[in-house]
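Standup, Tuesday
Yesterday: got the pipeline producing structure tokens again.
Today: sanity-check two examples.
Blockers: none.

Example 1:
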Amino acid sequence: MALSMSEENLSEAAAKQVARNFGKVEELEKVDQYRRTIIRRNGGIEAQLKTSVQSQLEDVRTGLVKLAGATQEIQEVRDSMAEIHSHSTVVDDLKNDIGIIQDVSRHHNQLEAACDNLKHIVRVPETVVETDAMIDNGQVLEAHKRLMELETTRDDLLLQLHRTTSERIDSKHPVNHYFINVMEISDKLANHLWFILQRALNVVQSDPTQLVTALRVIEREEKSDKKALDREKQTGFLPPGRPKRWRKKCLDTLEKATVERFESQQPQTDDTIWLAVYLERVKRIIVDDLTTVKRLFIPCFPPSYDIFDLYVDMYHRCLQNLLEDVSSQHREANEIIQLLSWLSTYPDFMASQGIDVDVKAETDRFKPLLSSHVIQALEKDYTEMTRKTMAEYSERMIDVELQDWQRDVKPDTDVDQHYHTTVAVLLFQMLDQNLSVAESVGAEVKRKIVAVCFEVLESFQTTYREEVLSVKASYLQSERRKPEFYFEYMIAVANNCYSSTRFTEQMKYRVVTSDCSGDEEAKLERRFKDISDGFTSIAELTCSVLLDVVYIDLESHLSELFGKKWLTSSTVLGTVDVTMQDYAQDFKHLKTELYQLMISKAQKRLLVEYIRAMLQRKMRFKSKEERKQAGIKIKKEAQQIASIFHHLDPNSSLSACSVLEILAEVIEIKDTSLLPLELEGLANKHPDMRQEHAFSLLSLRGDVNKSSAKDIIGQTKLASIESDDEKESSASLHLGYFSQVTVPSGSLFG
């Protein structure tokens, strides 16, 4: 039975493998190659099995021989044990004597340990002198070994005293006084290490062994610190001088040496380009030093130091202090230009020259070299350059955004799991920075920069919108295979636009101040509203683009509405429910407001498709019973649609589906004399309804001919509205259902 099941499982696994390997026609050409591979593999397996079986047989033969020998040896052992047992009866009398011997042995071990410690204690002055000489001769590791032996002897004695006496052991205690020179040796060794670390950049090039030795000693001391602190938790005893924290002192020494290196670079101010020369020299120092650190320090320092990043941070901070000092003094125009030009190259040479540090990307780690108010003052003469810089930066952001859309990973999420890319944040960071500069210059320059910001935003919106439509066409053309995460990145685009509307509002509050005149304030308010509306429009467009993908999946199912089998056995809305539930898992990554908008648009889209199927298909009901049955079904499906979207968003409107209920009333009403009244009510609630819609609806009933339909419509307000009437606001018509449903008018007026 088990063998049969195993064969069935193997057959099933083989069938799945064949289906997976040869699922496409073009892969069938590889059948012969695949058969040869399997034959070779089976031959290898059979050879291995034969070898394994032969090896097992040889092992069994050897085991039998050894088993026979072991049987004989076991008998010999049994005889020996019996003999030992006969002699062991006299051992019980020795038990008491052994206890006395154990006590003597324990006392002897204590005396032996005391003698060993005594040797070290007696030799403390001599060892201190030897250790001091070793430090002077550069024998750091050996000196540290002797120092650790001295400290261990002292700490063991103090620990014994701590355990055996209740009196306080202070620095004046005889033991501490006896070992006072050990502390001095420790300080001397530490100073020697700090001297090496202060010259680390030179030492690592001339004699890296010194640096490695110093770091080994420091790491040993870190372990000793940890051991001492752990023992303190157990015994309450902490040796004098612990914890030494030499690693922290090591890092402090490196930073102090870095600060002194920057301070030692004094500029020569006797030339008009002195600042440029000075800053280039600083740049050369940064590049050379960080290259040295990356090339030589990393092999010497333990990975936990993260030494390269540490040096980058230290140099960045020192450079901040240096530039703040330079910019704090009055500068001529050419000096300001030199400084700003150098500032613009700083991220570039940090990203190249073998350093490879992206200062721009790591904005949280690398604060600006100059504070915003300092930059504002320095960029007074660069107002006209801002236009070109902002436009180029905006284009680069679009390029990066397009590259992000093509990535094979999903976009980043915020704390609420909403997809986003960096484009919105980077865009408004750029505008914010330039506005900061403009505000420090003056009102006139500020107005010009604000105008540039509007131009950049409008251009960005135009390009962004075009790229959204372009990537949609590309996605559909590739049969929805590329980009791989198209749906997720379009959600990120919608979220970006939503965030941009909030950023626009924040920017407005910054720009529109009490200093603006009434006319200027009104103009700015209009411009900001246009910008905000533009981002909202792109967000809504992106939602519609996403819904297009959803309804492509639903298209074949929606075609069943008002078809031959719809009245009796349609399962369209069940499929819609499952599909919407599935896509809602992606929609959850939209901002809350956009998610609600998406659900609302999806519901309206479904209602429009439902009404379109009702009015465009040629279905006719043949009897009162069918009209009644259809009316009941339409009302039921209206409730089902409302339930589907209410489940997805409890805030969705349950009354949105009332239009279907009204249409159902028109269909199932028995007294045709009441039809004008029903149509009048429908037209009042939905002003985008036209005569051709009413005619198609009446035709659906099956009991109203063309002449009667014209008479009924003539008794309503629809008779006075032409199909191409433009009196109604196009915006309000766009909000309706019927304006999105086109039905032929020829059948009514032809």
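Example 2:
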Amino acid sequence: MKHLALLCILIHLVGVNCYRDPITNAFVTLIQQLDDEMKNQETYDELGLVQRRQHTQPIYPDTYEGKQPDLSYAPISDTFPQVKVGNKLIIGSTLAESHAFYSIPYAKPPTGDLRFMPPVAIDNLTETLNVSLPDFRMCYQIKNCSDGDCNEFLMTEDCLVLNINVPSSLDLSDPEKEPEGDKIPVMFYIHGGFFFEGRGTTPKTDGRWLSEAAKSIVVTINYRVGPLGFLLFEENGQLIEGNQGFKDQQLALKWVYENIGKFGGDSQRIMIFGESSGAQSVEYHLLARNSESYFLRAITESNPAVFPFLTVEKSLGVTDRVLEAINCTDVACLRASDPEVITNSRNEVMARSLLNGELFNGIEPFRPYMDGIEFKDQHLNLFQEGKWQAAKQVIFGTNNDEMVYVSAALQTAGIKLNKKFFKALNKLILGPVNGDIVSEAYIATAGPDAGPSYDYSTIFGQQVTDLFFVCPNRALARFASQTSDYLDNGQVPIYLFNNAYALNKPACLEAFDFDPVCGYAFHSSEIVFVFKSPQGYNITFTDNDTLASDIFTSYWSGLAECGNPKKACSNLQLDAAVDWPPYSLENNWDNILIDVPHSEVQSNYREDFCDMWDATGFYVNITNTTTTPKPTLPQTTTSVTNITTTGNPQTTTSVPTPTTTENIDIEKTTSGARSKHQFGSILIFQLLFYVLLKAM
């Protein structure tokens, strides 16, 4: 009865705005009630957060002027840029940094009978379209007002729009002719947000500064998210659509491919890039045949590649939970329901998934499913088998401290993970054998003096970073490298990065309002540098911030320009962006480390831990040993390597021998009655990912 009561309380609590601090506190309260023995008495301050990678002496002085930038949308010219697409005249605005076109519709509003259906291209209209001012429209989602005043948002189903920024050096004064000179690259951005929130119209990803610096056209898009974007239905034995939000992305990409030449863009040099679930989307476009013709290059930033596609069965299970939450029984009812009511079912869906032991659906319930057409197998399997667009140039990468949120959230909540709780959590996730092996490997990093009450919160944060981000991305990049069928000067055009540059206080605190993560390269922290958009975050860059941003621009624009992130391909010609070796066995699997005063080539990044994770089969079973050697779990007396934040290995201890390699289905790791340790483990995992929403 005690656990039943806790479950009822959880459903009630998650039904409130789950990314807000009161809900975090509510999770914390429940966890603390589970077992007093899991709470030790050491103070967090005595243990502290693990220190991030130390910089060498900065090349520039690191000062903060404290001034608030002005994000202006006022035109600087009485001559407005004009582009003719078909018979439609599109009028934009010339800003100090670029020509800007806001909220250009690329599809009909998905309302009425078009709700939950694939997007429909707009007919060739003849009226003039004035898109000279932003309206910040966004697709329906639960409001997250950390992005600004909620009253400034235009929440609407008529949200399928894109923004375009064009370098102001291009002459767009005559709509009857395309800009003179060579066409320039196009950088097409897909926003993140767990597939249930986010928008391409936010000032945080305003493309004006990146467009100016990279001498490229920058496009950002909206697509349907949450239940309005990713529900699959079954009526009368027939499946009805699904993956609508992903199809929105495809139609937007097609629109850009067909029309970007009018803006001066090169349709043969379109590079797609995205962060978090946007990076997942980029990866999926590399698999989707209906996307293949519309882009040449790709970058994934912080792709949580551990997430599998939903199966049809599990996707329909999510739909059932939405129907139950809003008291509907069929599609007709859903189409007649208020979009806000449908959207607000999200939290209950996540809670019910969580309580059913479905960890991934408790975090990202509305992700794409295997439709048997675009996606015929799990994405990592397809890359391993070479069933991707293997002639394309791709950058994969993650941030050094993706899940520092773990230790930060637990610090804020006053929760400590002692050894007993830490090991129980890993057994829940991985099973008894692999759970013990993984636990011992990470426990060893605490050193020989760590007692039974040592707080493993920070170490657990590193483990989640490895499991959800670093190691599956390493596997993905290796699969791509070994199955690529394109060579650039004898090298495969696949690249891997680790970003260690951090935004520090006071700018970090002003931008993200979560003090414990400041000074770390946490999840989503690179976006402001990629877009060169401190004004969009209402902060000011230091000189070091500007240098880090320039390094990103040099690499990203190099790939967009000529398919290689080298200095010679970027107009910046930045010495701090050192040569980036392709990620290949021939290059000893070296990657690039992004930091100031300059980037550097990195070897063996998290190698021993990723070898161990590969061997568990948690995110993929490595079967093609001709491309990637089959890893093995550590054996008795084999030393565990503690990879420090500088990438230098330090041997510490040994781990036990596994009896077998367990292939765990994460959605079925719990069944029947749950112990209080298991229940606490599920709750704490959910808590950690909700905190991520503060940064999106």
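Quick observation on example 2: DSSP finds 22 helices and 20 strands in the chain. Confidence is low (pLDDT under 50) at residues 1-69, 625-631, 634-681, 689-696.
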